[in-house]
Design brief:
Elements (H helix, E strand, L loop, with lengths): L1 H24 L11 H28 L8 H22 L7 H6 L2 H24 L4 H12 L5 H8 L4 H26 L7 H4 L3 H10 L1 H13 L1 H30 L1 H5 L3 H24 L4 H12 L3 H10 L3 H4 L5 H26 L7 H5 L3 H6 L15 H9 L4
Helix pairs in contact: 1-2, 3-11, 3-12, 3-16, 5-6, 5-8, 5-14, 5-15, 6-8, 7-8, 7-15, 8-10, 8-15, 11-12, 14-15, 14-18, 16-18
Length: 410
């Protein structure tokens, strides 16, 4: 930049003072080349105008050489915030696990099997097909694939509670899919990224960093399990904090990225990415309901699997995009999981609203506001009677449906 700015100044000096310099070096001005006061004033006026233009250009220079967003303090602050939010989320997830029930889940692994199929077969395939159908570039495709390969999130637990779902099934699906992600998420990401293998981002795909970061989530999960085992009341508080942190995290991230960076960042995201973020949760909800139907689950089990399939762990996806991938390559695509979270929460809210209206107007059942909004571990576990656990596949037990209907007056 120094050479480019010095050249115009040299040209100004040469053109303005060139003639005068030759005369002064000769000791005096020649009579036939006299420079009047008016000519000198014109020369100095020209110099002043050119200097003002040079100063104006230099004042605009920092705009083009400003620090890139990925090197800015705001981006580093967002990375720290996302990492802390992820730890809180995983800590709350661990607080939903009881050691005494691990044996039951191992003996009846239907919930684990459904989580495996829904989160690591259906959703990655949906993300892959959408990326191909909408002809996304490699950066957008990797962001979509990463979101599709993520395990279930805590939002599904809240929504399953609001639709009177099978809470044992919801908890085991969220927990098991998170643990299965340690191995299956990098594998799915590697497999489905093959169409973009010739691009720089895919060639240097940080699968090792993704796997390492997934392993690091075991620490807060394990800590949450220990807290649940030793200090049940504290675990209830941490669970509520983690559930509310989901909403707070999304709101803060939208405010920081939207208000501070303005619409320019969102404008760099292709319209096709917005469409994918809109329809991908809907497809997940539909496929999850169909999968639960194939397994012969009850209506409450179908609603649960539906929500578990469509609701992804957007905190984990955002953290991986910001911390594991090169920021100068990802650019604004770290916003995709936030867009997905916005649409998945809105569509899940509509899902809950439709169910509530159906329950009230068709089934003629009412429930108090306290029962709907009192989200705690005790509420989650007491929602499902022992004899109606998720392991009971009801296609082979016709009487189980009647049992559920017979218990409805309670």
């Amino acid at each position: 930049m120094e050479n480019s700015s010095a050249a115009p100044l040299d040209a100004i000096t040469a053109s303005t003072y060139g003639g005068l310099e030759d005369n002064f070096t000769q000791g005096s001005l020649e009579s036939d080349d006299k420079v009047s006061v008016w000519d000198q004033w014109n020369n100095f006026s020209t110099i002043a105008a050119l200097l003002q233009e040079a100063m104006r250009s230099s004042s605009e220079l920092p705009l083009s050489t400003s620090v890139p967003f990925w090197d800015s303090p705001l981006n580093h602050g967002l990375s720290v915030f996302v990492g802390v939010a992820l730890c809180v989320t995983m800590l709350g997830l661990g607080c939903t696990v009881e050691i005494s029930q691990i044996g039951d889940h191992v003996r009846r692994p239907i919930g684990v099997l459904i989580a495996l199929i829904s989160q690591f077969v259906l959703m990655p395939l949906v993300a892959f097909l959408l990326a191909l159908i909408f002809s996304l570039d490699e950066v957008a495709a990797i962001a979509v694939l990463l979101c599709g390969c993520c395990p279930g999130g805590n939002l599904s637990n809240i929504m399953s509670l609001l639709v009177n779902g099978d809470m044992n099934l919801s908890i085991i699906m969220t927990t098991s899919s998170t643990l299965l992600a340690l191995l299956l998420m990098p594998l799915c990401l590697w497999f489905y990224s093959r169409p973009w293998i010739n691009t720089t981002l895919v060639q240097f795909l940080p699968l090792g960093a993704v796997a390492l970061m997934l392993c690091s989530t075991l620490l807060p999960i394990g800590l949450g399990v220990i807290i649940r085992y030793r200090y049940s009341r504290i675990a209830d508080i941490l669970l509520k904090v983690s559930l509310w942190s989901l909403l707070v995290t999304l709101v803060i991230l939208f405010i920081l990225t939207g208000a501070m960076l303005g619409p320019q960042l969102l404008a760099t995201i292709p319209p096709a990415v917005y469409i994918v973020a809109l329809i991908m949760p809907l497809i997940g909800y539909g496929l999850g309901y169909g999968l639960a139907t194939l397994f012969g689950l009850s209506p409450k089990g179908r609603r649960t699997v539906s929500l578990e399939t469509g609701c992804q762990n957007v905190q984990l996806c955002t953290a991986l995009l910001k911390l594991a991938f090169p920021p100068h390559l990802i650019g604004s695509m770290y916003m995709f999981p936030l867009l997905y979270a916005l649409f998945q929460a809105s569509e899940a809210g509509i899902y809950v609203l439709v169910y509530k209206l159906y329950r009230r107007d068709v089934l003629h059942k009412t429930e108090s506001l306290d029962e709907d909004t009192n989200i705690s571990f005790k509420k989650l576990k007491e929602e499902e009677p022992p004899e109606m656990s998720y392991g009971a596949v009801e296609s082979g037990e016709p009487s189980s449906v009647n049992t559920e209907l017979g218990q409805s007056p309670h």
